[in-house]
Structures are given as C-alpha cells and as structure tokens.
C-alpha cells in the first residue's frame, strides 16, 4: 500500500484540529499550564541533580540554566532549519 505524505498545509490543519479538540476538553487552562511548567522544571532538576542531593535553591538555579541552554539549542536548530528550507525553496540546494 502506498503511503500518502501530508503537505505542510495538511499537517498544519491537522495540528490545529488536534489543538482545538484538546483545548475543548480543558476548562482550566491556567492550571494546565502550571502543571506543564512544573513538569518541565522537574525534568531539568532531575537532569542537573539526578540523586536529589543538592540544596533545592541551587538545584532550581541550575535547572533554570539547563532549561535556558535547552531552549537556545532549539532556537539554533530552528534557525538552521529555516535557513536550509529557504535555500531549498530558492533552488540553491538539492533536497
């Protein structure tokens, strides 16, 4: 069976549908966001202090730095991808 590859527009529409369905089931958006942020903080705290031996204040500061580095890496990867995609669109690079 041949596999159908979604276009960028179709992917965007599908993601929008999923997001709207998800938020249609969420009454308290603030609480949901707070849970997400707490989970993200816990992830980075576990990364910098896997044994949980550091002072909580130090661990929190280190986790914030780890989180900042993570998002900067994502920012750099995104910029590289946008640049690469622009070159491909402009015909400067073969896909």
Give me some keywords for this one.
95 residues, mainly alpha, 75% helix, flat
Query: Looking at the structure, what is the overall shape?
Result: flat
Radius of gyration: 20 Å
The biggest sheet amounts to: none
Percent of residues in beta strands: under 5%
What pattern of helices and strands is seen along the backbone?
A: HHH
Helix fraction?
over 70%
Arithmetic mean of pLDDT:
92
Low-confidence stretches: none
Based on the structure, what is the oligomeric state of the protein chains?
single chain
Structural class category:
mainly alpha
Terminus-to-terminus distance:
25 Å
**Quick one: how many beta strands?**
0
**Helix count from the secondary structure assignment:** 3
Explain how this protein is built:
It is a single chain. With 95 residues, the protein is mainly α. It has a domain of 35 residues. Helices cover 75% and strands 0% of the residues. It comes from Nocardiopsis terrae.
């Amino acid at each position: 069976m041949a596999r159908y590859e979604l276009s960028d527009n179709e992917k965007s529409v599908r993601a929008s549908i999923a997001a709207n369905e998800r938020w249609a089931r969420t009454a308290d958006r603030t609480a949901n966001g707070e849970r997400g942020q707490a989970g993200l903080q816990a992830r980075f705290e576990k990364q910098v202090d896997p044994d949980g031996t550091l002072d909580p204040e130090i661990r929190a500061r280190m986790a914030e730095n780890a989180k900042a580095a993570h998002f900067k890496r994502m920012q750099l990867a995104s910029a590289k991808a946008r640049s690469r995609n622009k070159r491909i669109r402009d015909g400067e690079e073969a896909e």
